[in-house]
Amino acid sequence: MSKAILLLEDDPNLGLVVQEHLQMNGYEVTLCVNGEAGLVEFGKNTFALCLVDVMMPIMDGFAFAREVRCRDTDIPLIFLTAKSLKADKIEGFQIGCDDYITKPFSVEELLLRIGAVLRRSSGNPAEDTRTQFEVGAYSFDSLTRVLKINDREQRLTHKETELLRLLCLHQNQTLERNLALREIWGDESYFNARSMDVFISKLRKHLKDDDHIEISSIHGIGFKLTVS
Length: 228
Prior knowledge:
Blueprint: E1 4-8, H1 12-24, E2 28-32, H2 35-44, E3 49-53, H3 61-71, E4 77-81, H4 86-95, E5 99-102, H5 107-123, E6 132-135, E7 138-141, E8 146-149, E9 152-155, H6 158-169, E10 174-176, H7 177-185, H8 190-206, E11 213-218, E12 222-227
Parallel strand pairs: 1-2, 1-3, 3-4, 4-5
Antiparallel strand pairs: 6-7, 7-8, 8-9, 10-12, 11-12
Helix pairs in contact: 2-3, 6-8
């Protein structure tokens, strides 16, 4: 998998800090200070992902992303922005971005989100057709919605099934909260996020008979199904 990233950020200090941390984690990073310069680099080189600040001079991030989407419908786009308004996020996703990170953000969160987007773009787990899973001592059939351990079976609800299947597809990896919300609930509203927390608690109870299974919460990022 290519690890070349095109980074657009007009704040020179933040741009250099992000570039340095990404390079320390094995990425090749080309840094540009506006969308116009970014398009020049995009035309000259091949990138695995574009990390794009929204508010930039000359050409902003949304304008850059629209132009990129005209040239390449598949390259992953992640917006970096101080904007947190729902309308801005909707516009970003309508353009075709893969994720949206609101400033300030931690380097850990940025790296996790980049990794998740790159994994999805190289073989989207949501498009994985598997329906049968082994989870520790449990077997799980997402078609029949049956979770089984020994001779005991538990029939899950539709939402429980969809959420457990996503966790299984990301087993021992972080399942991003926003990805699960978009895939299962259709949007990332506060009420849907609270609903998902309830379903996570239910799944923990369903899986409690195997001490080697844990669904842990990664604060501000998502959840991880770990089988030790």
